[in-house]
Amino acid sequence: MTTDNQTTLDLKQFLPYSLTNIAMQMSEQFSELYQQQFDLTVPQWRIIANLAQYGERTAKELCDMARMDKSTVSRAVKSLLTRNLITAKENPKDKRASLLSLSVEGNRLHEQIVPLANEWQAGLVSDLDRQELKQFISTLSKLSNHLNKNV
Amino acid sequence: MTTDNQTTLDLKQFLPYSLTNIAMQMSEQFSELYQQQFDLTVPQWRIIANLAQYGERTAKELCDMARMDKSTVSRAVKSLLTRNLITAKENPKDKRASLLSLSVEGNRLHEQIVPLANEWQAGLVSDLDRQELKQFISTLSKLSNHLNKNV
DNA sequence: GTAAGATACTCTCATGTGAGACTAAATTCA
DNA sequence: TGAATTTAGTCTCACATGAGAGTATCTTAC
Question: Start and end of every HTH marR-type domain (chains A, B) (predicted)?
Answer without folding.
Answer: 12-145
